[in-house]
Design brief:
This is B-like cyclin. With 311 residues, the protein is an all-alpha fold. 52% of the residues lie in helices and 0% in strands.
Length: 311
């Protein structure tokens, strides 16, 4: 499921299952390098092809107004706990942020086909582990042994994890090359910033990507919309609707409906950004949402590692 290290262009990668992995080798998440990865003409072609795939997968979905992950408060809590575990494990195993985001995408894709309420809690936790291990196999350069994945209160053996992985793979029809907002980040940074990229911009964008997973179901929102909104908020969190429309008007990717979706997501991420900025480190509890944490640098660990206590 890996991607070879041979030279490539966006055009050549379109035949691969995972086009958004083209940023994998050149865009190191621990560094904030020049986001201009490809010549503009190829970049535009690549983005158009991603959007075609995205439209097929998501249709007209992507309005962040009043969004929720499920109608049940208890199921929302279960999903949030799983995401917390994914983020904690990402930090302890030093995984890429894209790996964690991709695993949440798998999680939401899986439970869009098999409703969350139909499963026992232990099974949901096992499936979240399987989603992360599969995402790591897609995105990490080295294979992490299954024994490295620890879930508080549960002791899953390798055979159980492998069965869960196969269940996820079969449910997702082995289509693991999900498009994520990371696929569009460099493109929108170039479009909105040009030569004058603000210091720390990539860190802020990625932080918003991670925080938004706890606010919405990723199956309900197009990755390109999330990416555009996050970049705009990271650049300027005080834009009016007219200012947002002015910023996105030169980009001929969407119609009026998508523009409304971008502004809805922008408003939601404004709130996330305010919580990030205003919440002091001393009052952030261990299990608080990512959106309420202090501002972190791109190469910092986002979550403390949970200790496993067994009786």
């Amino acid at each position: 499921m890996g991607i070879s290290d041979t030279p490539f262009s966006p055009r050549n990668l379109l035949c691969q299952e995972n086009p958004d992995a083209c940023f994998k080798e050149q865009q190191q998440e621990e560094k904030e390098d020049d986001p201009c990865l490809f010549p503009e003409s190829e970049d535009e072609y690549y983005i158009q092809c991603l959007l075609q795939r995205e439209t097929t997968a998501f249709g007209s979905k992507s309005c962040c107004t009043g969004c929720s992950t499920t109608n049940s408060t208890s199921l929302k809590r279960v999903r949030l706990d799983c995401i917390e575990w994914i983020f904690n494990t990402r930090a302890s195993l030093d995984f890429r942020f894209l790996t964690a985001y991709l695993s949440v995408t798998y999680f939401d894709r899986f439970f869009s086909k098999k409703p969350l309420g139909d499963w026992m809690i232990w099974a949901i936790r096992l499936l979240s582990l399987a989603c992360l291990s599969l995402a790591a196999k897609m995105e990490q350069s080295t294979v992490t042994p299954l024994s490295a994945y620890k879930v508080q209160e549960y002791d899953f053996d390798n055979q159980q994890i492998q069965r869960a992985e196969l269940l996820v793979l079969s449910t997702l029809e082995w289509k693991m090359g999900s498009i994520t907002p990371f696929s569009y980040m460099s493109y929108f940074i170039n479009k909105f910033c040009g030569e004058s990229k603000p210091e720390g911009l990539c860190s802020r964008v990625v932080e918003l990507f991670m925080a938004v997973t706890k606010e919405i179901n990723l199956m309900d929102h197009q990755p390109s919309i999330i990416a555009a909104a996050a970049v705009l908020v990271a650049i300027d969190a005080q834009l009016t609707k007219e200012a947002v429309e002015l910023r996105i008007s030169p980009i001929a990717l969407w119609g009026s409906q998508e523009n409304e979706h971008i502004f809805s997501c922008y408003n939601m991420m404004q709130d996330i950004e305010k919580r990030i900025v205003k919440t002091p480190t001393s009052v952030v509890p261990p299990h608080s949402a990512a959106g309420t944490r202090r501002r972190l640098n791109f190469n910092e660990q986002h979550c403390p590692v949970k200790r496993i206590h067994r009786s």
